[in-house]
Write the structure tokens for this entry.
Amino acid sequence: MMRRLPFILPLVLFAGLAIYFVFGLQRASEVGTEFVPSALIGKPFPEMNLAPLQPNKPGLKTADLKGQISVVNVFASWCVPCRAEHPMITRLAEKEGLNVIGLNYKDKPEDARNWLDELGDPYMAIGIDRDGRGGIDLGVYGVPETYVVDQEGIIRFRHVGPIQLRHLEDDILPLVEELSQ
Amino acid sequence: MVAELGHFALILALFVATLQSVIPLWGAQTGRDWARDLAAPTAVAQFLCVAFSFGALTYVYLISDFSVQNVAENSHSLKPLLYKISGVWGNHEGSLLLWVSILALFGFLVSVFGRDLPPGLKSRTLSVQAMISVGFLLFMLFTSNPFLRLFPVPLEGNDLNPLLQDPGLAIHPPFLYLGYVGCSISFSFAVAALIEGKVDAAWARWVRPWTLLAWTFLTAGIALGSWWAYYELGWGGFWYWDPVENASFMPWLSATALLHSAIVVEKRDTLKSWTILLAIVTFSLSLIGTFLVRSGVLNSVHAFANDPERGVFILLLLVVAIGGSFALYAWRAPDMKGGGMFRPISREGALVLNNLLLSAAAATVFLGTLYPLFLEVAGGDKVSVGPPYFNATFVPLMIPLLIALGIGPFLSWKRGDLFGVIQRMRFVFLITVVVSILAGVAVWGRDAYALVGLAVATWLALATIAEMMKRAGWPKAGLTGTWRRLWKLPRAAWGMSIAHLGVALIVAGATGASMLTLEVVNSTRQGDVIEIADYEITFEGVREVQGPNYAAVQGVYTARKDDKTIWQLFPEKRRYFATGRETTEAAIESNLWSDLYVVISGDGTNGAYVTRVYHKPLVPWLWLGCALLIVGGFMSLSDRRLRVGAPKRSQAKGNMMSPSPTQAAE
């Protein structure tokens, strides 16, 4: 039996993988369950002061978040889903007029600038988080992630993964509406 | 009418494939020769049916028959001919039909070119191949029929995404599919061997050319995709670690391992169960890749429209095909007796190291690709780990692999003399050090990792050339003798050396592209000059250009070096009428050493445009290296030993000077 063990291993590993795929498919067919509560919801945005990416815009400074509702978006030029959500981020900034702030995660600043040159730069301020320390403080899983921070600098909402229209309409905009009253 | 005939041919193919998967196998197992020998004719019939069906779909695309839903959704009557044809596989249903066609094509090729195959192995292999066909035909007919009619019939079609209307991308999928669907044949050979319970040198000699053929196409497919990304996406990257790219890269890594381990089975009759496992894993990775790309389980920009319903079906296919073959493996493989023993330091040992590192690399890519999925199941959403992860894990595995790749071909079978080899390679080592120092001076202060990349590439290239020289009798045979013998070496030996040189060039090119690129971004007005590397680039202004389905602003740039005008560059910013979508077309000029890459953007307010100029050293080598891999693959395939099937050990090999390493690790 022991001799046979290594030969059974591939089957066992694949069985495990198949189970994951089943769950993955279930997820893919469900809608609206993609909301991940963060340990930080209801807590102040962690203290950070990240250097600016663009010469004409400020960086990400926690103190600057107070006084208005902000959307903090974690993005990187190497991240494919970020490309997909970019029009939504642009809409949040340009059409909804929100204070959208970028956290450029583990990226080369010149790559990020090119990326923004190509797609457009909707952010009011962008902080460089080259070594990912800011990401650790926020508890970033992967890129992209988006946070809504209220006037007091408290995190009210977190979304992991690209923002799609339904997240915008069902979650973010109603929340902003509620917060601004 | 043609659409219905195509649909009917597909149903017929399903029936034929069902027969092909059952009867020959039963015949082979029970010793009924008439049933066993049905394998070849049914394989031919299945291919004819599927090919007819593919032809029918192509025809309705060519005549723009918009009563067929698939055509209406993906084509347009004004589309150029090339894109009407490529539209056939530019969508889910059509690409599946291409998948099935290639699957049947490989069955057909085995039945035609495999005349000398042992009949038992041949019929079992074709039966297994037909089982895969049955699965995919069922999938097509039940969930993704490309021949569905549409009523009312629209007057015009929806057109294909403009980004996809590109010659490079039009021919990329067929190559890619020839590659990863081609891996099915090694899989079928492996499963047939498990059923038969016999793996010997003859088996390996049969599997290798088919794997090599699939591998060569896969290489070409991946290279074309990468090249497209380089010139089309407008920021000069060539590899993005996107799930779709990874889906083709994982089988490539594992097929590369398989190519090398099959050599060990062939020459030394050992590593059998591992080779079988690799053959199964390689095709499994192709299947998993297909599943990931089409089920919506992972997010990607170039994934097809996702549909979880289809995902369930493909998952079922995965479980049956992969689970079934692994179960068979667990049951039968332990009884396979290994042949020759070998020491850790030997050609076999080096190939085992190659296999370990390549498998670890494939596993790394696999984890990085699936991490988002694991995360999602744990409650997250689609995210990307991206290049930071892959650079930190994949690259460190490649460095020892590339260093060992230089040494491996020098080692003899069974028991190698590492010390002797190192002594023989001292000149290679010395020259590598000298070249690295020169390179270090040239790239001083830029990037320390770049130096590692260049050193490894130099080492590999020199070691490969030295090994070739030694094999031709250098230094004993003298210069002319070596030269003469060099041309008489078996093509497989040439194939190996060319492919390994290709790897060295790719490493150098990738290093140049990712670490040594210079870049200048400026807002430019007419007459402004940008200086980069040794070039002076003058912005001469813009002009309006009309394309067939877009309008473009074209920038005119002149590149000068040493006060001589050497190039004119015309990058474009296009706007497609139908979708209003903007794309950038980079202008690229290259010499042997570097690329000059110019992109124009911005809206020309006050006559100012944003100009981005990249100087990318060594990038032409990247594409040259890919070409060498492909040439090496075909060269090795044309070796006499493989062409004549499974002959006795060829005579030519006995006469060589150095006895052991002449039996090449092709």
